[in-house]
Specification:
Blueprint (H helix, E strand, L loop, with lengths): L14 E4 L5 H5 L3 E6 L9 H15 L7 E5 L3 H13 L2 E7 L5 H9 L3 E5 L4 H15 L3 E3 L7 H18 L5 H13 L5 E6 L25 H4 L15 E7 L1 H15 L5 H14 L8 E6 L13 H10 L21
Helix pairs in contact: 2-3, 2-6, 3-4, 6-7, 9-10
């Protein structure tokens, strides 16, 4: 018998070691790469942690009360976490996101949790999405804006949960994960290095211009509030910022390549942002100074959430051929109709 509800299952995700996906150079360096499986949170991503903390902190402070409507703008996974928790707590919920094809799964999942979804003009980007949501809340009494990009309950939950979990288990997007988790780990071990990953096409934390990319969940196109506040007034450029040692990157194609490699060599299915972090981890593992070190990779979400994303393009095309509509119902053409090894 248990009194736990779905919200109580958030956190304490496994940390596993990978071996077969390592490059020869990483193996020669005797680097240990561990992956934190955040897709095993009930809503399917690391964002369940911040969703829970932001809503419960608002409840404790009295800014979120029964009967209010919870509103948030998001690239997807935070919205799903919020929609799930609102369903469990009984709040009405509105999730705002861009009207883009790769967001299909996010739209469907949020709706299944009972949330309403508002889709904004993609050409207006994150500024347009943010402005629409803020205006919506301002015009409607009883609406509560979660505001993940500026809500201190975002990085704080990584400081109190994600960081300690990694420390105990390993023996060793918003910017909240790097800010909170990294702060805790650097306090435990000042020699710990924290690497922040962004798309090669959108290196805004090095002062470069944003260009379009397909790595959902990171690279919104503007420097994040939490990473800005690590060194207020310091221009974004190469080098460290606060406890973040380096800002490294992976391209859209590299994120797909490494997410696919991880699924096929380790049986771990992740989304494109996790492919990006794994690619960067492999680059680090090949450095001479990485010899004998441990690298922890945050796998933020499950790959099954991205079937509308280019990550699945090749498999979807194959499946469309393998499973024709309507199906071939002939009894006179043999038994085997398709063999994927011969595709």
């Amino acid at each position: 018998m248990t009194d736990m509800n779905i919200i109580d299952t958030i956190g304490n995700t496994p940390l596993v070691r990978v071996n077969r996906v390592l490059t020869p150079e990483a193996k020669a360096n005797n680097v240990r790469i561990l992956i934190k499986l955040e897709m095993q949170n009930p809503g399917g991503s690391i964002k369940d942690r911040i969703a829970k903390n932001m809503l419960e902190e608002a409840e404790r402070s009295g800014t979120l009360k029964p009967g209010m409507t919870v509103v948030e703008y998001t690239s997807g996974n935070t919205g799903i976490g919020i929609a799930m928790i609102c369903a469990a707590k009984g709040y009405k919920c509105i999730i705002c996101m861009p009207q883009l094809p790769p967001f299909e799964e996010r739209y469907i999942v949020c709706r299944m949790f009972g949330a309403d979804v508002h889709l904004t003009a993609p050409a207006l980007g994150m500024p347009g999405l943010k402005s629409y949501t803020e205006n919506l809340v301002e015009k409607n009494e009883g609406y509560f804006l979660v505001n993940q990009f500026f809500n201190e309950a975002n990085p704080s939950i990584h400081y109190t949960t994600t960081g300690p979990e990694i420390w105990e288990q390993s023996g060793v997007g918003t910017g909240g994960t790097a800010t909170g988790t990294g702060k805790f780990l650097c306090e435990k071990n000042p020699n710990c290095k924290v690497i922040c990953v962004e798309p090669t096409e959108s290196r805004v934390h090095l002062g470069a211009a944003h260009t379009p990319h397909t790595i959902l969940g990171i690279g919104a196109g503007v420097p994040t509030h939490f990473l800005t506040e690590l060194a207020p007034g310091q221009p974004f450029a190469e080098g460290s910022r606060g406890h973040v040692s380096e800002f490294l990157s992976a391209s859209s194609s590299e994120s797909i390549e490494w997410a696919t490699k991880l699924a096929k060599t380790e049986g771990i299915m992740v989304g494109p942002s996790s492919g990006a972090t794994l690619k960067v981890a492999m680059d680090l593992a090949e450095r001479p100074e990485a010899k004998g070190k441990t690298i922890v990779v945050i796998a933020a979400s499950h790959g099954i959430r991205y079937t509308a994303h280019p990550l699945w393009k090749e498999m979807k095309q194959e499946a469309k051929t393998a499973l024709p509509q309507p199906p071939n119902m002939s009894k006179d053409e043999g038994t085997l109709f398709w063999d994927s090894s011969k595709a």
